[in-house]
């Protein structure tokens, strides 16, 4: 009985991995990670606060920006606790149920962020190509529906792959290759036929990210077509400048994602540090850089941050 019980306990416990070969430096390595998480959380919370409290920012563009901030935090926060538990030598253990929940949130919000970027591309298309109908097309009701559909569209397809893990025996090593749980990492440890999970996962990524990226590309084709019709060079530059932050956000998400996919597919035998480094870039760079880019490139957000930091000085200048 004792052996059976210990076997069951062992089968539901997995072990996370920090930075292999640098275990003695984990406490020092945690410092830059801590700073990155702090910058990401503060930046996204600041944008959410500014959009929420400033009535002038109650417009479609800023509602979508608030959605982007929420998905950024949803993608990075589930990994934070497990990462610091490993780096601070608290515990490498993670229970199967916790691992599945963490995995679900990571993959769901990764897909949701791509959907939000598609919605933001639609916003830029309407603003530039249909400026007179902008407010009537992108109503608050429609924006709310887009947000709900983006979340459901991302969450529901993830459930079958995640749910099937509960029926897999894990008789190999229970050591994961990251400091958090990923679906592609766990199925490598399963002692069962995982073809469905592999094929379903590839189809899901191709459909969701493929459709989103295609939609973004088509939107910008129409945007570019409309911009080229503008007679003045200054007008064309101004129109394109409104898209600069969104283009950067798209690159920030898709470039690390493509890089991580290439590493997983074609560099399987490379150093584990390469895989870990790319995975952390994919999950940490968008939440950290998106608020910075939108703060620098968007005058209204920049002004909101200044009002938040120096309320008395700004009000005295206005007086």
Automatic annotation (TrEMBL):
This is Olfactory receptor. Coiled coil: none annotated. It comes from the Eukaryota. The keyword Membrane applies. Keywords: Cell membrane, G-protein coupled receptor, Membrane, Olfaction, Receptor, Sensory transduction, Transducer, Transmembrane, Transmembrane helix. The keyword Flavoprotein does not apply. It is found in: Cell membrane; Membrane. Residues 43-294 form the G-protein coupled receptors family 1 profile domain. SUPFAM superfamilies: Family A G protein-coupled receptor-like (SSF81321).
């Amino acid at each position: 009985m004792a052996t059976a019980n210990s076997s069951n306990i062992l089968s539901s416990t997995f072990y996370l991995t920090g930075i292999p070969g640098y275990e003695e430096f984990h406490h020092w390595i945690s410092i830059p990670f801590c700073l990155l998480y702090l910058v990401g959380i503060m930046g996204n919370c600041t944008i959410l606060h500014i959009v929420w409290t400033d009535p002038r920012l109650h417009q479609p563009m800023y509602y979508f920006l608030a959605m982007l901030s929420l998905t950024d935090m949803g993608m990075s926060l589930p990994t934070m606790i497990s990462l610091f538990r490993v780096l601070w030598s608290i515990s490498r253990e993670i229970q199967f149920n916790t691992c599945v929940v963490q995995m679900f949130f990571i993959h769901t919000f990764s897909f949701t962020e791509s959907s939000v970027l598609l919605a933001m591309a639609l916003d830029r298309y309407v603003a530039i190509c249909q400026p007179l109908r902008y407010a009537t097309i992108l109503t608050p009701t429609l924006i709310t529906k887009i947000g709900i559909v983006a979340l459901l569209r991302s969450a529901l397809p993830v459930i079958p792959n995640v749910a099937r893990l509960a029926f897999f025996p894990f008789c190999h090593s229970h050591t994961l290759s990251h400091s958090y749980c990923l679906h592609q990492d766990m199925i490598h440890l399963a002692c069962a036929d995982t073809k469905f999970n592999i094929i379903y996962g590839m189809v899901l990524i191709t459909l969701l990210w493929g459709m989103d990226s295609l939609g973004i590309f088509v939107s910008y084709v129409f945007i570019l077509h409309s911009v080229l019709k503008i007679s003045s060079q200054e007008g064309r530059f101004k129109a394109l400048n409104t898209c600069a932050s969104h283009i950067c956000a798209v690159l920030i998400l898709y470039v690390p994602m493509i890089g991580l996919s290439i590493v997983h597919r074609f560099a399987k035998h490379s150093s584990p540090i390469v895989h870990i480094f790319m995975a952390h870039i994919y999950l940490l760079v968008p939440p950290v850089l998106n608020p910075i880019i939108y703060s620098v490139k968007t005058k209204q957000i920049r002004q909101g941050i200044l009002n938040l930091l120096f309320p008395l000085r700004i009000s005295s200048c206005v007086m």
